[in-house]
Amino acid sequence: MGRHVGHRQPVRFIVGMRGDETFDKISAALKKGNRYATAAGALVLVSADEGPDERTAVYAAVDVGATIAQLTIEAVSRELVAHPMAGFIPDTARDAFAIPDGVRPVAVVAVGSLGDYTEARPRSSSATRSGASGCLSRRSRLRAAGASRFSRRAARPRSRRRSPHRNRLRRCRRPRRA
Questions:
Q1: Rounded CA separation 47/107 (Å)
Q2: pLDDT tens digits, residue range 58-71?
Q3: Which of 24, 59, 94, 95 could form a disulfide with 5 if both were Cys (CB 3.0 to 4.6 A apart)?
Q4: Is the pTM of this model over 0.90?
């Protein structure tokens, strides 16, 4: 670990290896969008000891960011993948590990080896039709909605419809032909 402001060492780690109880507690704190991280070999909950005053708390957050960066660099140097995430519920982690009040959970870092894409399951049936990204093109979405190429405006979502006033303004700016 690197140097810290005031030599306080405010960073605290809770490491869970896949299959143990600590890993399960950390993964339970992840938000829905980060549940994919349960495939990692390890989950690391990184917390900051905020200290006695506000100035110390600010520097503790900076130290946590630097430590996460160093952890990521070290993982890459060992041919691993590290992915820091802020998408977790701190109160769930605080309750699961009895983290004291002066220590704030900041991030979860997933660490593991890169999987083989040939063994990965497709996300949905649309992913196999439109390629690996799983996204449909605009034309495919329109066709799926039953729109022809002449009725694109009707199939466009309400938020993307053009205002009729916009067209009127354009017409007003055009010079009139004689």
A1: 7
A2: 888 888 899 999 99
A3: 59
A4: no
